[in-house]
Amino acid sequence: MENVHILSQRMPTRGEFLPFGSALQSQSSLNEYQKLVEKLQTSLDLTELVTIYADFAARVFKFSGMQFHCSLGVFPMKNADLSNTPSTFELHLSGEHLGQLVYFSQYPVSESITDKLAKFHQCLLYPLRNALMYTRVLKLATKDSLTGLNNRSQFNEILKQKIETARRQHRPFGLMLLDLDNFKQVNDVYGHKAGDEVLVEFATILDNSVRATDSVFRFGGDEFAILIDDPAIMTNKVVAERIMKTVTKSALMNRYGVTSSIGYTLALSKDEEDELFARADKGLYQAKNAGRNCARSA
Prior knowledge:
One of its GO terms (cellular component) is plasma membrane. This protein has 298 residues and is of the alpha+beta class. The chain has helices at residues 2-9, 14-17, 27-40, 46-57, 111-142, 152-169, 183-190, 192-209, 233-249, 251-256, 273-289, and strands spanning 65-70, 73-76, 85-93, 96-105, 174-181, 215-220, 223-228, 259-266, 295-297. Helix 3 runs parallel beside helix 5, helix 4 packs antiparallel against helix 5 (111-142) and helix 8 (192-209) packs across helix 9. The model is unreliable at 1-24 (pLDDT under 50).
């Protein structure tokens, strides 16, 4: 997390943010820009930053929604209405392309409005770049470097949140643990490059087998987990069968003789994290004992 420390040390002065290009700027305008800069400096969360900025930009242009598009994804302002016509502005800082700021409005963007928004954009650039750097560092800390899936630390955090939510709403969810059958022989016989190819292929299969509301994780080695946002145990069974069927159809998996064993369970309102995990792990153990390439519910 060294980069986060660096970010905290480098905060440009207000003069670097403010559009002082014109000597004719009124004091009231400068004060407005200064307030925007001060407000933008209060957050490194990209969605929050876009929402803060949108509150100020709404003073010069009537729009229903706003999004920031970048290599990390799409970050909308809160309560955005994206049904109107988009107008896109490219954001650059010192030759670096930060992304695109998209306004959604039923009104066209006039030349005078464009000039005013350009001054607001100048105030946004440095806070936006800092937020982008910070978000990239956080992403590295929570993602598996090989597969791009969430890692074990992220699993622990999300599992805790889901258990708390399940208790409040009295709505179960599914936990699925998976590993690869015969994976060790792939590394031993064909080498770790082939093993990495198998892991990436399996991660892709898992991602394609679940819905957007579900979360996929890699713990390390050939150990994976899925949190399934559905109260029905049958949904876990359907997802497990879909995964195993896709694995058997994969040319890469067939080449190396790799299949998958799966254990799954539903979270109960009284469950603690370790109890829930142990139950799903028991299902995985049962699947291994049953001959592998199968799924068992604990």
